[in-house]
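[job 4471] stage=fold_predict status=RUNNING
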Amino acid sequence: MVKHSLRISLGLLLAVCIQPAMAQAPVGSVPVKTYTGYYNDTAVYFTAFETNSANFAAANGLVLAPRLGQVNDANLPQMIFFMNGAGRQTVVLETAPGQPSYSPLWSVVNATWTGTDPMPLITNFASAVQWNQQGKLLVQETGIIFNGPVFMINRPLDLSGNGTLAPTISPNDFLGIDAANRTAYFKAEQGYYNGQLVSFLALEHAPGEIADAPGAIPVPTISLNVLGPNSAANFYEIDGQLPVIDSIPIRQVAVVPGTTTPPSTNYGAAGAAGAAGGKSTEVPAPQPAGQTGQQPGATQQPAADQSYTGAPYSPIWHVSRVVFRTGIAPVPLRSVQEIQQAASLGQVDVIPGAADNTFNCPIPFYYQSGTTNPVYTPPTTNPTTGINPGTGTTPGGTY
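[job 4471] inference complete, writing structure tokens
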């Protein structure tokens, strides 16, 4: 499959929930931008962190995570973006927390209404498949992988309530929502990268790490057995010390032209299987005229900061333990290099975790050398680039 990076904008999917705004951010929290999606005729809240696509990252202010390009996307659920949707239309999710197929990583699919009659409001995946089979909804896989954890479920479609906390998120790590600023707050966990103190989030956990997420259920779909052995970054748990990570988000510092075009197929006779099993095949790429940010034949592709020399970053982390040997007095270990040196001196043993010793741990800021524990501030305005999947208002809030 030829990968195709689209400039799809999440900006106008922002949702305002109905509750008083928080007076101030909770102590020890990280503010994260929120978005609204549909699942099975309900609304959900999700967040937006990393992607394998430089174009998608640039259009939405996301982090570029190269290792996500190693994920086996055949095992990912789909998130559908409606390229010419309007009114209350927002993205549709194939699955949700609590379902066996749920993963915080999504395969981004775009869809364009081609029927002669007005497009209906589509709020569940099965309906999208049905419209595709009838030839009224053009569907295209993009090759974009996107880390968009769902953290609240079972919201009413009119957004008159916030729903309930997703069972895959520990209550210890979710600290609330600021409705006015469309911002969720998560606990800031601490660790080290290359000697620098950094903050990260602890979201979905695979079975091998679920003990570290009290009150949450495991998410087996983020294990290395499902995503692939090269999809995760390395996370080291050290007895009595803060953990150490081997990579950080890549800053984007330049843009260069470039684009690709995918081949064409469709759901066809496999549509019912797609609804049940979660995968569509590709259809011709839509070419909507007059859409802001869409320039036929060319897109702007950000380049990574060439000064960064660490390992490729991924929000999915594979956990290994670092244990000091009997009789060895522990010393501070704050980088992978220090761990490797201690191992070479016979001071520690590094015990690799099993395939399901993984968890979703976004670092929600661009790392700046020399800055201790930088704070991420979500944008206060919507992106102006990319294709907006649809805007509108409802009694429950603004999408």
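[job 4471] summary: The first strand starts at residue 29 and ends at 33.
[job 4471] exit 0
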